[in-house]
Specification:
By secondary structure, this protein is mostly helical. The chain is built from nine helices and three strands. A three-stranded antiparallel beta sheet has the order 2-1-3. A hairpin with a 6-residue loop joins strand 1 and strand 2. It is globular and about 45 Å long. The protein starts with 19 loop residues before the first helix and ends with a helix. The C terminus is likely disordered. Bound molecules: manganese (III) ion.
Length: 218
């Protein structure tokens, strides 16, 4: 069985940016439901998967699953992975050091750190329906892109690494912001865990370099 990640914050930790009620329902109801559905599908399909494969591995190999369960698996697996990512991407700590560390990288791909946030906000605002806006990393060369994905699709489904994802589903903001998605997208960037994002990028690039080194020495 896959399980909910432990949170290292309380549900009210991100007020006033994200209300306690939203955090609590988002984690205990929405995320829990995606997880329950995922466990049900896997149990019926092949419960040995639980012991042998992480959720990330399932996502990378999503297209090898039979077509009759693939969409349900995408919805529940994506829902679980996306929200696990999302919780890790939030922090109240001062992030100045890590914003500075990410600035050269973001400047290379999006013009500046500030533009990176503006572009995510812009893409998030114009996205129609339920989905996510992500910064993705291309594992072949470490390059970044800002892309939107519908429903609970995750960049791993198409061989890109997820770096930072913002939940655009109404359940992520409606109780507090009503139809004002712009204010939600403005405020969420006050609580991003840039330390997590920076360390994740470093680990992805390092893994990638190791792979390259391994191949070159063969
Ligand atoms: Mn959500």
């Amino acid at each position: 069985m896959y399980t909910l990640p432990k949170l290292n914050f309380n549900f009210d930790a991100f007020e006033p940016y994200i209300a306690k009620d939203i955090m609590e329902i988002h984690y205990t109801k929405h995320h829990q439901t995606y997880l329950n559905n995922l466990n049900e599908i896997i149990k019926k399909y092949n419960k040995n998967i639980f012991e042998h494969f992480s959720e990330t591995t399932l996502a990378i190999y999503i297209n090898t699953f039979p077509e009759d369960i693939r969409q349900d698996l995408k919805n529940s697996l994506g829902g679980h992975i996306n929200h696990t990512f999302f919780w890790s991407s939030l922090s109240l700590e001062n992030q100045t050091e890590y914003k500075e560390k990410l600035t050269p990288l973001f400047t290379e791909y999006f013009g500046s750190f500030h533009n990176t946030i503006l572009k995510m906000q812009e893409e998030g605002k114009k996205f129609f329906g339920s989905g996510w806006v992500w910064i993705t990393v291309n594992p072949l060369n470490g390059s970044l892109e800002i892309r939107t994905y519908k429903n609970q699709d995750n960049p791993l489904f198409e061989n890109l690494y997820p770096l930072l994802g913002i939940d655009l589903w109404e359940h992520a903001y409606y109780l507090q912001y009503k139809n004002d998605k712009s204010s939600y997208l403005q405020n969420i960037f006050n609580i991003i865990n840039w330390k997590y994002i920076f360390e994740l990028y470093e680990s992805l690039v390092e893994t990638n370099n190791n792979n390259i080194h391994c191949c070159a020495s063969c």
